[in-house]
Specification:
disordered C terminus; 341 residues
Length: 341
């Protein structure tokens, strides 16, 4: 599949399975939005209380809640990343089935993915903890260098930070297909990570390019949607509180926070579903190239076998089989096949 076919296939998959993909992503985004809203209001209340601080003792006392809120912010980010990793594996189900033009309902998707939920949770925990430990190690080393060398440590810390980002991105892309492998191929946590590492071999730059362009696209779209929302929230604040005081500002902040988080959840659910669909199609494409999965998909389409299962889970072709020439298109019984419609 070419880049345009992956994008087209992702849009069509979401359109045909809106309830399962968009609905599931919306649930996760709504959970994250609730926690983000709570943290935002907590930061506002803390900033208001800091205005009344008149001594160092009161400031030190106020720093406790501030650090707690910062820890809560980090916890929310980790939680969203964890849930996103699990949901990425779940959303592979409707994408894989759409390759054969099979619709997938919300209940059916979770029923099929539920059989693999424990390995998905395991790989999500492993990836989350791995990222946190790596970040903590880099921060710890940087702190030690600054303590020992002072400002001169920048000569080491800056290259260390840039190198860490490069390594993080490289490893992240090498392992990003593990949830898909766990769900479709019914592997364990270790085998899923190993399978993702093998599938992405010699394809890292292509995957990086697709992922980067998609991330830029969804980021721009999200910002375009959020700008009117921010302006509307500001306008509401001016109308509701033309002569602001502490109480009215707090009330207005609650209203605008609810509006902005709700819009953010809606936009985030669409962009997440789209990105998850892209990742799943990259996985299916690599399976076609390395395993000859397209031949197995053609057989399933012709025979109609396993209509309620996940295609690609029981491929009869050995791994590393050369990809048969089929113009990189999805298999179809009719001429001129297209991505899922």
């Amino acid at each position: 599949m070419q880049f345009g076919e992956i994008l087209d296939g992702s849009f069509q998959t979401i359109r045909r399975n809106a309830a399962s993909m968009f609905g599931s992503a919306l649930i996760v985004q709504a959970i994250g939005a609730v926690f983000v809203g709570i943290v935002t209001l907590g930061m506002f209340q803390l900033s208001m209380s800091l205005e009344t601080v008149n001594s160092e003792a009161e400031f030190a006392e106020a720093m406790g809640p501030f650090l707690a809120i910062m820890a809560g912010t980090l916890g929310v980010s980790v939680l969203i990343g964890f849930l996103g990793s699990v949901l990425q594996g779940v959303l592979v189900v409707p994408v894989a089935r759409s390759v054969l033009n099979r619709r997938t309902g919300f209940k059916q998707m979770w029923k099929l993915a539920g059989r693999r939920i424990w390995p998905l949770l395991g790989v999500a925990v492993l990836l989350t903890l791995g990222g946190l430990l790596a970040a903590a190690a880099v921060v710890g080393i940087s702190v030690l260098l600054f303590t020992a060398m002072g400002v001169g440590a920048l000569l080491i810390v800056l290259p260390l930070g840039l190198g860490s980002v490069v390594v993080f991105v490289w490893i992240g892309l090498k392992l990003m297909l593990a949830p898909a492998a766990i769900v479709v191929e019914r592997t364990g946590v270790y085998d899923g990570l190993l399978r993702s590492w093998q599938l992405t071999r010699n394809n890292w730059w292509r995957i990086f390019g697709i992922t980067l362009v998609v991330a830029i696209m969804v980021g721009v779209i999200a910002q375009i949607v959020q700008i009117p929302a921010s302006l509307a929230a500001a306008a509401i604040g001016e109308v509701v509180t033309p002569h602001p005081d502490a109480e009215s500002i707090a009330s207005t902040l609650v209203i605008t926070t609810v509006i902005s988080t709700a819009i953010g959840a809606l936009v985030g659910s669409v962009t997440f579903a789209f990105q998850a669909s892209v990742f799943a199609l990259i996985y299916m494409d690599l399976r076609m190239r390395r395993d000859g999965l397209d031949v197995e998909l053609m057989r399933l389409m012709e025979t109609g076998a396993d209509p309620d299962g996940i295609p690609g889970g029981h491929s009869t072709l050995p791994r590393n089989t050369a990809w048969p020439p089929n113009d990189g298109q999805f298999p179809s019984a009719s001429p001129g096949p297209r991505p899922p419609a």
